Amino acid sequence: MRILLVEDDQLLGDGLCVGLEQMGYTVDWISDGFQAELALQDHSLDLAILDISLPGQDGLTLLRRIRQQDNPIPVLLLTARDSLNDRVIGLDSGADDYLPKPFDLEELAARLRAIARRRAGRGTPLLRHGAITLDPAARTVHLNDQPVSCTSREYAILETLLLNSGQVLSRQRLEEALYGWDDGVESNAIEVYIHHLRKKLGKSTIQTVRGIGYIIPKQAGPNG
């Protein structure tokens, strides 16, 4: 999952980047409200963590502006304000969730997973596709109930393809799920990760659409 973190507290921002990246998220960090508005035009972002108190323009103003622009990106608000009125204003301005400071990183991650699950219209926390089961909370993969060892980037590609099953995802789209703005991208990295996943999960699991990208075909039924 690709996250935009908008937080002007350098110590907190650095800690969140390190913690979330260790959990497997790709994080881009911005500390200014005006810069964040431009960054949120990047459609490869999956979710935004937005502090209310920001230089440039405050988080609530930014949130209202992107919602007025019909930007549907899920937003989790962070704030030191924790009155009922503050929570109501934040949610009514278009936030998907609200987390007061201080908070535990594990709770933040759980809320991010819940937002992603609601936006995808899934009731279950698990992603299932045939014999494959992916657990976003534990970041584990099972095939026929047997654990499959995946690197963090193999896992990220598999999760992205499963969340978008039935859709052909380009190499660029998969790279955007793995790499932040400042990360270097190896020329054949996606092909290597796909090759390893096919060896572990079966050659037919991920299909190549020549000249376009990769797809995990959508299955019929409630889990498809």
TrEMBL record:
<dbReference type="GO" id="GO:0006355">
    <property type="term" value="P:regulation of DNA-templated transcription"/>
</dbReference>
<keyword id="KW-0805">Transcription regulation</keyword>
<dbReference type="InterPro" id="IPR039420">
    <property type="entry name" value="WalR-like"/>
</dbReference>
<dbReference type="GO" id="GO:0000156">
    <property type="term" value="F:phosphorelay response regulator activity"/>
</dbReference>
<dbReference type="GO" id="GO:0032993">
    <property type="term" value="C:protein-DNA complex"/>
</dbReference>
<keyword id="KW-0963">Cytoplasm</keyword>
<keyword id="KW-0804">Transcription</keyword>
<feature type="DNA-binding region" description="OmpR/PhoB-type">
    <location>
        <begin position="124"/>
        <end position="218"/>
    </location>
</feature>
<dbReference type="Pfam" id="PF00072">
    <property type="entry name" value="Response_reg"/>
</dbReference>
<dbReference type="InterPro" id="IPR001867">
    <property type="entry name" value="OmpR/PhoB-type_DNA-bd"/>
</dbReference>
<keyword id="KW-0238">DNA-binding</keyword>
<keyword id="KW-0902">Two-component regulatory system</keyword>
<feature type="domain" description="OmpR/PhoB-type">
    <location>
        <begin position="124"/>
        <end position="218"/>
    </location>
</feature>
<dbReference type="Pfam" id="PF00486">
    <property type="entry name" value="Trans_reg_C"/>
</dbReference>
<dbReference type="InterPro" id="IPR011006">
    <property type="entry name" value="CheY-like_superfamily"/>
</dbReference>
<keyword id="KW-0597">Phosphoprotein</keyword>
<protein>
    <submittedName>
        <fullName>Regulator</fullName>
    </submittedName>
</protein>
<feature type="domain" description="Response regulatory">
    <location>
        <begin position="2"/>
        <end position="116"/>
    </location>
</feature>
<feature type="modified residue" description="4-aspartylphosphate">
    <location>
        <position position="51"/>
    </location>
</feature>
<dbReference type="InterPro" id="IPR001789">
    <property type="entry name" value="Sig_transdc_resp-reg_receiver"/>
</dbReference>
<dbReference type="InterPro" id="IPR036388">
    <property type="entry name" value="WH-like_DNA-bd_sf"/>
</dbReference>
<dbReference type="GO" id="GO:0005829">
    <property type="term" value="C:cytosol"/>
</dbReference>
<dbReference type="GO" id="GO:0000976">
    <property type="term" value="F:transcription cis-regulatory region binding"/>
</dbReference>
